[in-house]
Design brief:
Elements lengths: L2 H11 L12 H8 L5 H9 L3 E3 L3 E3 L15 H14 L2 H5 L6 E7 L4 E5 L10 E4 L7 E4 L3 H9 L20 E3 H9 L19
Antiparallel strand pairs: 1-2, 1-7, 2-3, 3-4, 4-5, 5-6
InterPro entries: Knr4/Smi1-like_dom, Knr4/Smi1-like_sf
Organism: Streptomyces yangpuensis
Pfam families: SMI1_KNR4 (PF09346)
Length: 205
């Protein structure tokens, strides 16, 4: 399955209605991170962008961007967090992989960090590493790319959830781009649903 086919499959269960092309400068991103990125992640950024899935998980920006009200979540901070957890909780001894091989691409509301293990020179073969907070194992590796992992997670295909929260409850999945979410907040609406929220916009400029 090509990366575009994977994104289309994901879009069947999670419409990109509130997504947006992130318009990433990939050469700049590659220079910062010292690697190119998996094709499915590049395709995801072009169709969905960075943002929130059901208010339960966030897909991270590879390069920082100024927010409308607050800066959106970025890879650098969560990668540092994942590497610190890897060192502190024995990831190196369990998997014999240096923390520098970890790059975070997402987080969950349960403080799980979704990463790649970048040991393979081909980014399209990077597996997903979950640094779990309330999971059976602190670290687990899944032999899928980011898009396929998300598809399986959103389709409830894992016998045991790889993350520490109830991510999927059988309802409709929604993706909201971070700019859309912040704009809703500024307008006094819930960032995820768009419904009026008396607390939204409370700290707007």
């Amino acid at each position: 399955m090509t990366e575009n086919a994977r994104i289309k499959a994901l879009e069947q269960i999670m419409p990109a209605t509130h997504g947006a092309d992130e318009d990433i400068d990939w050469r700049a991103a590659e220079a910062v991170w010292g690697t190119r990125f998996p094709a499915d992640f590049v395709a995801f950024m072009g169709r969905f962008g960075a943002g929130s899935i059901n208010g339960e998980a966030s897909i991270l920006l590879p390069l920082p961007k100024p927010g409308l009200q607050w800066d959106p979540a970025g890879m650098a901070e969560e990668t540092d967090n994942a590497r610190q957890v890897w060192e502190a909780e024995g990831g190196r001894s369990a998997f014999d992989v240096d923390p520098e091989s970890i790059i975070a691409w997402g987080v969950t509301g349960g403080s799980d960090i979704l990463c790649w293990l970048t040991s393979d020179p081909d980014p399209d073969r990077w597996p997903v590493l979950v640094c779990g907070r309330h999971t059976a194992d602190s670290f687990a590796v899944y032999p899928y790319g980011m898009a396929e992992f998300l598809y399986r997670l959103c389709s409830d295909e894992f016998d045991v959830s790889p993350v520490g929260i109830t991510f999927w409850d059988g309802g409709r999945l929604s993706f909201v781009h971070w700019r859309k979410a912040q704009r809703r907040w500024q307008e006094g609406r819930n960032p995820e649903t768009g419904e009026p929220d008396p607390y939204a916009g409370e700290f707007a400029d």
